Amino acid sequence: MRNCKLELALALLAVVSLPAVAAAQGFTADRASREGPGFKAGRIVLHPGLSVEGGYDSNVFLQRENLEDSFILRLTGYLDVATEPPQRQREGDAAQADPQKITFRGGIGTSFYHYFNDRVVPNAAADAHIDFGYNPSQVFSLQVRDVFKRTIRPFTNPNTPEGTTTSYGRNINTASLDLVGRSKSQVLEGRIGYTNMIEFFDSAVFQYGNNLTHRVPASLSWSFFPTSALIWDVQYINQSFDGDEVAASPTLLSDNNRVKTSIGYNGALTDRLSLTVMLGYTAGFYSLASDFDGVIARVEARWRPRPAIELVGGYDRDFRPSFIGNYTEANRLYLDLGFVLSGALQLGLKGWVSFDRSGLALDPDGGFLGNQPNRKDTRAFVGLFGEYRFTAWLALFGQMGWLADFTDFEYVGTQPLIEPAAGYQRFDAWLGIRVFY
Questions:
Q1: DSSP label at 29?
Q2: Are strands 292-306 and 345-360 parallel, antiparallel or unpaired?
Q3: Count of domains in the chain?
Q4: CATH number of 395's domain
Q5: Which residue from 35, 83, 28 is spatially nearest to 392, judged by alpha carbons?
Q6: Residue 355's domain spans which residues?
Q7: Measured between alpha carbons, how far is 297 from 317 in angstroms, rounded to an integer?
Q8: pTM for the full model?
Q9: By the 8 A CB rule, do 237 and 217 touch?
Q10: Would you write out the chain's pLDDT as a tens digit for each of its 437 residues?
Q11: Would you tell me which of 9, 308, 352, 391 could form a disulfide with 334, CB atoms 3.0–4.6 Å apart?
């Protein structure tokens, strides 16, 4: 339990470094938490799934004016493979199952999109993952992960003046290795690892953003109560861009080195209330234009008044990489509510608002990229999700969301940017049915 809480806290810290605008990719984004019983083959369990969805996007290209909307058809299929968890091994057995020396989870999925808008050609998103663990509960253990994610929904203004746009395919592969050491009592736990991330784009007009990131993280935790721990983490990050592609970039991009460290608390205060508090410092050193340094922080409270109801709220402050101005300083407030009714109906509501400020937004010649030295944005999102399970393998689900960006920044160039070029608002909604096992 203590190890799970530590991993959750570190994962939450990593999430805030993701781009502010993320295109929904269907229910495949969180399959492990909503999978069916699966087909057992020895100690391996197979989890297949298939869904059909209809959707609507009010602002396909995230534009401030001349908005283009579209209905969308999305077909998704996947297959996950996992070792059988110890709890399931014990079902029907009198004896306790031996601790697993090897754990494995892997899978592959794809989502085909058809836009009923002639400007967007049909395309397929995809994801694949491998998660391997050796001696996961012993004094020394090893974790190896590889995650591939391909998104295809447009993330900025049309990349052609008229007619069919080129692909918005964005591909990210993240491979990591972690060595974990624990005291025999599991009161102390230390980790050190290495992560390699490569990001590349389908279309030639976006390939100036192709980049490679090396990350070396380390952490130490001390569990002083059954459900509480002090956590310290530190990481070094190196990011580099393809020099040949950067020559054609409309925005100034720079190789960089970043460091980040934080210390804090994660644990349960009562049976119903838990808290994460992290405070730290980060700095970024760039070959060109703006460097940064400053305080980072995260405060999150989780309240579960009943087993089927959970409320999560918090604040985070971070400096994340950006294709405009080298980085973005972001201050975000968020609130998530989830509950389950009668064991069959799951509902979720989430919202957040983020106040963002970039470094100096420059073009490759050193001139301003827009009408202001720095891009300042207020971004907001409100979303609703629901799923009703008719049986253990059949569900009806839907989601809707409103995403908005408010800014006075106006891009003065003509070549498409990887970041949305101006303020926008978008409403999208999806309804579908899925079969899973």
A1: G
A2: unpaired
A3: 1
A4: 2.40.160
A5: 35
A6: 2-436
A7: 5
A8: 0.88
A9: no
A10: 344 444 433 333 333 333 333 344 444 455 666 677 888 888 889 999 999 999 999 999 999 989 999 999 999 999 999 987 644 444 444 445 556 788 999 999 999 999 999 999 999 999 999 999 998 878 999 999 999 999 999 999 999 999 999 999 999 999 999 999 999 888 999 999 999 999 999 999 999 999 999 999 999 999 988 889 999 999 999 999 998 888 889 999 999 999 999 999 999 999 999 999 999 999 999 999 999 999 999 999 999 999 999 999 999 999 999 999 999 999 999 999 999 998 899 999 999 999 999 999 999 999 999 999 999 999 999 999 999 999 989 999 999 999 999 999 999 988 899 999 889 999 999 999 999 99
A11: 352
Looking from the CA of 55 toward its CB, the CA atoms found within 13 Å total: 30
Show the CA angle centred on residue 307, arms to residues 304 and 313, nearest 5°: 25
Q: Which two tokens stand for residue 162?
A: 């008229």
* Tokens found for residue 427: 């409403």
> What count of other Cβ atoms lies within 10 Å of the Cβ of residue 220?
17
Whether the Cβ atoms of residue 368 and residue 359 lie closer than 8 Å to each other:
no
Residue count of the chain, please give it: 437
Any residues with CB less than 8 A from the CB of 265 and at least 6 apart, and which?
Answer: 228, 229, 230, 231, 275, 276, 277
- Name the CA radius of gyration of the chain, rounded: 22
